[in-house]
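Dear Dr. L.,

I hope this message finds you well. Following up on our conversation about the binding site, I have prepared a predicted three-dimensional model of the protein together with arginine. For your records, I am including the exact sequence and ligand specification that went into the calculation, followed by the structure tokens. Please feel free to forward this to your student if that is useful.
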Amino acid sequence: MSKEKVVLAYSGGLDTSVCVKWLQTEKNLDVICVCGNVGQEETDLEKKRQKALSLGVLDCKVLDLRDEFSDEYLTHAIAANSMYENKYPLLSALSRPLLAAKLVEVAHEYGATYVAHGCTGKGNDQVRFEAGVLALDPDLKVIAPVREWDLKCRPDEVAYAHEHGIPVPEGANDNPYSIDDNLWGRAIECGHMEDPWNEPLDDAWTMTKSPENTPDTPTYVEIGFEAGKPVSIDGEQMKLSELIIKLNKIAGDNGFGRLDLVEDRLVGLKSRECYEVPAALTLLQAHKALEDLTVEGDVLRAKFALEQQWATTVYNGKWFSPLKAALDAFMDETQKFVTGTVRLKFFKGNLTIVGRKSPYSLYDYGLATYDRDTTFDEKSAAGFIYLDTLSLKTWSKVQGPGSGIA
Ligand code: ARG
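The resulting structure of the complex is given below.
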């Protein structure tokens, strides 16, 4: 009888390579690996494929997901100005649902009963993978080897790898950090930074220069948007994935995009997280600046509250959910006229928005100028204030400071 099949989210690193052997030996399953290219630094995915094949997997699919990630995931994140707890631009939370969707697709292709991932039981990513998979196919069963096995630390995993003939990269025990990265940036955890009092060491950063070592003159950049989506840099049209790669470099070279945070995980604990998100922060700030110019005020303020909800929903793994779909519908409606150009100035680790323009700008010079000769009828302000303060005046006289009681 042929074995049952499991589709594993495979990064090619130590954890998921050990997962392969563990699923084969402990669970007696045929393993199919899925390795997604979402723009991570480590790009030799063919080598990882060969490594998986050498471990006896049935197949290892390497999928270039950079455009799908940009066009179907990051555009929504930009539209929602997404910042979890108003500070974290959600990079890992955005890639997991896409990878989950691919696991489901491949599971269907191979008639697999199970999907598996290499996440620990303490993080958010396990929730995102599993919620994504189960929302798309509630009949699939999930295995999380790292939550089940007795390998307590990295040296245990290295020992297991040696025992089972899994190639272990040199220095596998030396890297102190846990890294997750994609086009939207890089998350750095563990090591020296587990004490939130410790300043991150220089070797934690790879996408951004230290502001001390950046150019002494500012760099100006213009980002063009169409209906909320970034489409050009300095007038040159390009697809979003390319634009992000280019902007990561420009912003990173100017020392912009480092974050050092304590954030609240879905599983109830606080964690110290460092991030490098040069393009993400740049695009979110530029996009917001263009919205300020083009989106009507009531909509902007209503949107602000829903943006927080969007980010929390996605952080918590509910990418594929009716709430997220409804929030996206709202966001989409707000983006129709977010078209125009934003001018940015990078200098020594800082980003300043120095200009914005749009054919749909709601900024009206005639109304806004402090010159007296304008289209704004200042006399009607008196009537406005009379009515606007009516309830306040009544309150003051009867119950408040004007009542003579207090
Ligand atoms: N704290 C971030 C999040 O929950 C980053 C997680 C990074 N994942 C990792 N496997 N290192 O989205």
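In brief: DSSP finds 14 helices and 14 strands in the chain.

With kind regards,
A. P.
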